[in-house]
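Page 42, continued from yesterday. The earlier attempt failed because a stray header line got pasted into the input along with the sequence. Redoing it now with the clean sequence only.
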Amino acid sequence: MITAFPISVRKQRGFSLVEVTISLGIAAFGLVAIFGLLPIGINGNQTTINQTSIANFTTSIVADLHSAEKSATVSPRLGISLAAGGTYYLDESGGPFPASRSVASDSRYRVDTTVIPASATEKKATKVGVVVTWPAAAGPTKAAGKVATFVAIDRN
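This time it went through. Structure tokens are written below.
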């Protein structure tokens, strides 16, 4: 009698090389897409930080102009002229830029003010136009960002 030995078929467990290659390709495609979006997100975040800082600095400039005494010719904190306006530079914390350094190239923000003083005979407010741009070295026409506001100061 011939006995037949049963042929055992082993079931293979795991992934084939084709399956692994396809899954790695899909994962790589997804990662490349995500890494491509990172610079856009970082630039957007930096722009938002600058805009928030400028809004806070502009509020600080307006408060500084309002806090000047009626007889003062410059604002108390930043030294902004209340008679003639001009160009001023701020550091990264929004404070006045030290005169000992190269102002135009090292400062972060540029403040341009235009003052329309009230006439001596009329009881009107002094009008101050404030334009803050960044970066300071770029100048107002090539600035990356800009905030403009108008302030009326009662100096009567």
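Notes: Residues 4 and 18 are 36 Å apart (CA to CA).
Reminder to self: strip header lines before submitting.
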